[in-house]
Amino acid sequence: CLDDLASLLAAFAGRGSNTLGARTTRDVVARWRTLGLATVEPYPGQGPGVVLPTARAAAITHQARPKPPSWTDTPHTLTTAAVAARYLSHGGGSWTAETMLRATLPKGEHLPDGLWRPPSGAVVAVEVERNGKASDRWAGIAAHLLAHYASTHYWLSEGTRPAWERWAESNLTPADRARLRVYSIEAQGVAR
After folding, report:
1. Digit-coded pLDDT (tens) for 7-50
2. Runs of H (alpha helix) within 13-134
3. Which of 57, 78, 125, 158 could be disulfide-bonded to 112 (CB atoms 3.0-4.6 Å)?
């Protein structure tokens, strides 16, 4: 996940897709750890650890208080972070994560995994789907996103994509399908 962090740091520094080197990124994380801004937690069976912000870092940056990682949710969280890094390093703009949206939107409303605002100023809802869902769940998510956002990007795993595309073909109008863009998590190199 240091690769994703290197991409995010480069994007925030205005370097676009010219990411930081591995050593530089490790040095940044070491400084954050020394300052009490981050911890590195092992990711069971998956090689290197995961860099997590501390409560101190959240307070300084006015972010939602970090919660302990749920290792069942971690693949989705890491994939979403990799997608965010890709948008920011290749397209620029800004990213608002679901955790930040939760603090600003009414409870009970479906929240996209993130909102990307490219330099054009448009707002793009982003959904990351690593696993299939029941038809009525997909219907609820799509209805909300289509009602609130002009454009939605779906990032689907290879295992999920065929079922989602069949569902979309059967349940969405051509006009609604035209507002959705679909990307492959694996083909785009963001699977975590």
Report:
1. 777 777 776 667 778 888 889 889 999 999 888 887 766 666 78
2. 22-34, 55-61, 74-91, 98-104
3. 125
